[in-house]
Amino acid sequence: MIKNGTRLASQVCDTQVIVVRSAESLDDLRCGGRPMVPIGAERSGELDPAFADGNLMGKRYVNDDGGEVLVTKAGAGTLTVGDIPLRIKEAKPLPASD
After folding, report:
1. Helix (H) or strand (E) holding 9
2. SS3 33
3. How confident is the model at residue 94 (pLDDT cuts 50, 70, 90)?
4. Based on CB atoms within 10 Å of each CB, which residue in 20, 33, 46, 48 is the most buried?
5. Higher pLDDT, 28 or 91
6. Domain count, the chain
7. In a domain? residue 2
8. Which residue range is the domain that position 13 belongs to?
9. Quick one: CA dihedral 70, 84, 76, 42, positive or negative?
10. Mean pLDDT across the stretch 16-39?
11. Is 76 part of a structural domain of the chain?
């Protein structure tokens, strides 16, 4: 299982992430339709047009299994677990200060 703090890179675009909350499902973390690899590992393949919606730097992406990653470098690929896209984690509203 991928551990918290693990840094991963896309094989097909500029995307880089760090794992904030590990989950078993993140073992199948992909970007642009290809599995993500440790930063500095060999890259291969091409961006799948079906998974080319991009991602945003500084945003946290989550899945239903509790996995959470933080995008440290944005790219053209869609972050997915298998074929299921991750969604941007919504910020919690701050309490009223009245």
Report:
1. strand 7-9
2. coil
3. confident
4. 33
5. 28
6. 1
7. no
8. 7-87
9. positive
10. 97
11. yes
